[in-house]
């Protein structure tokens, strides 16, 4: 039996990435791919690389019999879309925005959203009706910190620098995604105030309830289209060997998150649903680096991972993606 999957916000980047994955998922049949800007146009008119893969067209509404609906809308728009379009209770919703990620937002219109980070909440995701898919920076940073929180070892302030590609900002044009501005350039934005800090803090406190520290996060815009490289450090009494062992044990059952003994770099994960972590001790500081593809493990790949868990499929179904090292 196939899972019928619909998408809302079909012309955007995360929707395009979902289509690339779902078209090759052996247990998925596509339902309505809703687009407010492109209803009636072929999917490949917007997502050019799908030419030859599908002749499906964008719809103005869902087919109505979807088992799961992915909301790929900008922040705030998922809430308003759900308020206007009530879905049957049995239809699962996987939302990619930040509308339902925080505990205070997880109940909406009779739906209960579970925070969809499988490395943290796998058993709750398997039982969930609806999923709030994590943010991209939040995914990279949480995966770098969860093992420390689990061991109660987050005892001092945490410093994070993380650089993202231009697709992180979505398909709308703006000065900072304009080629002339972005190429050969680096800049920061929202220092210490990025909106993902809320979900990061809640997940860490779930594992280490007495958490009392600052996460000092500086996000960077990078001169590339895909991926996030995060470096995270905090003072620690663990030795390098103890820390590496702890991280490897924490992620032993996580099919997409792997602790590397060698230093890591972005191209190891671009186009895949992987997160790679590297842990080293330098003086008093434990330094953890973390890399993901913002559109895959940071968005649409993780959304499919959550869908697999919701429907009782192996977590990795449809997510054995080919990397592009060179
Ligand atoms: N890009 C990433 O790396 C990333 C990672 C993690 C999470 N996210 C989150 O995922 C969501 C989608 O991101 P994205 O990068 O795919 O954004 P995007 O490329 O800007 O696409 C969003 C889509 O939403 C639809 N839309 C735009 N304005 C709308 C409105 N006012 N009301 C209803 N629909 C509207 C449009 O699709 P139609 O024209 O087809 O209707 C648009 O293409 C965002 O909440 C984002 O924060 C993104």
UniProtKB/TrEMBL annotation:
Keywords carried by this UniProt record: Amino-acid biosynthesis, Arginine biosynthesis, Cytoplasm, NADP, Oxidoreductase
NCBIfam families to which the protein is assigned, alphabetical: argC
Gene name as annotated: argC
A GO molecular-function annotation: NAD binding
Name under which the protein is recorded: N-acetyl-gamma-glutamyl-phosphate reductase
Active site as annotated: 136
PROSITE patterns: ARGC
EC numbers, comma separated: 1.2.1.38
Native organism taxonomy: Bacteria, Pseudomonadati, Bacteroidota, Cytophagia, Cytophagales
Function: Catalyzes the NADPH-dependent reduction of N-acetyl-5-glutamyl phosphate to yield N-acetyl-L-glutamate 5-semialdehyde.
Presence of keyword Repeat: no
Organism per entry: Hymenobacter sedentarius
Pathway: Amino-acid biosynthesis; L-arginine biosynthesis; N(2)-acetyl-L-ornithine from L-glutamate: step 3/4
Reactions mediated catalytically: N-acetyl-L-glutamate 5-semialdehyde + phosphate + NADP(+) = N-acetyl-L-glutamyl 5-phosphate + NADPH + H(+)
Pfam families for the chain: Semialdhyde_dh, Semialdhyde_dhC_1
Gene Ontology CC terms, in alphabetical order: cytoplasm
Family listed: Belongs to the NAGSA dehydrogenase family. Type 1 subfamily.
């Amino acid at each position: 039996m196939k899972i019928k999957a619909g998408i809302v916000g079909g012309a955007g980047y995360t929707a395009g990435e979902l289509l690339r994955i779902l078209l090759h998922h052996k247990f998925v049949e596509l339902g309505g791919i809703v687009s407010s800007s492109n209803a009636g146009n072929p999917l490949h008119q917007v997502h050019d690389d799908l030419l030859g893969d599908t002749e499906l067209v964008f719809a103005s509404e869902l087919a109505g019999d979807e088992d799961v609906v992915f909301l790929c809308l900008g922040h705030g728009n998922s809430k308003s879309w759900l308020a206007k379009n009530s879905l049957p209770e049995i239809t699962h919703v996987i939302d990619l925005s930040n509308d339902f990620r925080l505990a205070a937002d997880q109940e909406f219109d009779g739906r209960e959203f579970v925070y969809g980070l499988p490395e943290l909440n796998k058993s709750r995701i398997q039982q969930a009706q609806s999923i709030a898919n994590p943010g991209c920076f939040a995914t990279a940073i949480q995966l770098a910190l969860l093992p420390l929180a689990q061991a109660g070892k987050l005892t001092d302030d945490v410093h994070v620098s993380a650089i993202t590609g231009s697709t992180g900002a979505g398909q709308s044009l703006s000065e900072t995604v304009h080629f002339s501005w972005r190429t050969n350039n680096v800049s920061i934005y929202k220092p210490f105030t990025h909106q993902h800090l809320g979900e990061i803090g809640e997940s860490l406190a779930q594992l280490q309830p007495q958490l009392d520290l600052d996460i000092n996060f500086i996000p960077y815009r990078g001169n590339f289209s895909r991926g996030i490289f995060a470096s995270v450090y905090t003072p620690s009494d663990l030795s390098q060997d103890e820390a590496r062992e702890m991280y490897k044990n924490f992620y032993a059952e996580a099919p997409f998150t792997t602790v590397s003994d060698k230093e890591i770099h972005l191209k190891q994960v671009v186009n895949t649903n992987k997160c790679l972590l590297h842990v080293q001790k330098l003086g008093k500081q434990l330094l953890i680096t973390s890399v993901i593809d913002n559109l895959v493990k940071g968005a649409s790949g993780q959304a499919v991972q959550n869908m697999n868990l919701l429907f009782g499929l192996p977590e990795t179904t449809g997510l054995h993606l080919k990397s592009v090292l060179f």
